[in-house]
């Protein structure tokens, strides 16, 4: 009788042990996934968590972004395009002294032109920012801030606002122009 009771207890203990092991493996996998996404997206990870209210939904959205961008054909600029865009940027910066507002609008357009030349789709702004966040997470917030300034009513803008927008655009522009920028 006692031998007959030992077998079910052993089976139950083995099942419980397996469940604990599977749960631990899942937990470690989730932590690894979170750490990888935090590493890849940097400050954008925290922004997504704040936006979604919890890490699970934010991580799913960030993974969808990464998958979407993997499907795109992002490429480096040709040396000729790189030179042309760098020259265009210098012209935009020089115009800032005489017409800061026009220079900021031109900087916005130039950043879009570089993105398009690299292969980013030019959908709405939020989609462009999400796409950029995959490969350029450290400067995507600059892009959002600069764009927010660029679309403000000109009566609301100060020269300091416009200067900040140019600095933000320059950081993204330089990152996009970089030959070392990530390419799939």
Layout: helices, strands, pairs:
Elements lengths: L1 H40 L1 H10 L2 H17 L7 H17 L4 H19 L6 H11 L4 H11 L8 H19 L7
| Total number of distinct structural domains | 2
Task: Assign a percent range to the helix content.
Answer: over 70%
Choose one word for the global shape. Answer: elongated
Number of helices: 8
N- and C-termini, Cα separation: 66 Å
Cα radius of gyration in angstroms: 24 Å
**Roughly what is the average pLDDT, rounded to an integer?**
86
CATH fold call of the largest domain = Four Helix Bundle (Hemerythrin (Met), subunit A)
For the record, the CATH architecture of the largest domain stands as Up-down Bundle
Query: What is the CATH class name of the largest domain?
Result: Mainly Alpha
Structural class: mainly alpha
The low-confidence runs, each spanning 5 or more residues with pLDDT under 50, are: none
Q: Write down how many β-strands occur, each being a DSSP E stretch of 2 or more residues.
A: 0
**Strand content of the residues, in percent?**
under 5%
- Major sheet size, sense and barrel closure: none
Q: Give the SSE string.
A: HHHHHHHH
């Amino acid at each position: 009788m006692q031998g007959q009771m030992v077998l079910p207890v052993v089976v139950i203990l083995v099942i419980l042990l397996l469940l604990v092991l599977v749960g631990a493996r899942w937990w470690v996998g989730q932590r690894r996934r979170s750490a990888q996404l935090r590493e890849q997206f940097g400050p954008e990870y925290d922004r997504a968590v704040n936006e979604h209210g919890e890490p699970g939904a934010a991580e799913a959205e960030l993974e969808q972004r990464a998958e979407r961008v993997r499907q795109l054909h992002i490429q480096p600029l040709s040396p000729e395009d790189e030179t042309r865009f760098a020259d265009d940027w210098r012209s935009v910066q020089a115009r800032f002294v005489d017409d800061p507002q026009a220079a900021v609008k031109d900087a916005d357009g130039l950043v879009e032109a570089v993105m398009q030349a690299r292969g980013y789709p030019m959908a709405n702004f939020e989609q462009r920012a999400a796409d950029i966040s995959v490969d350029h997470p450290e400067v995507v917030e600059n892009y959002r801030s600069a764009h927010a300034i660029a679309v403000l009513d000109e009566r609301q803008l100060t020269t300091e606002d416009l200067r900040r927008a140019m600095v933000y655009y320059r950081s993204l522009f330089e990152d996009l122009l970089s030959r070392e920028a990530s390419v799939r």
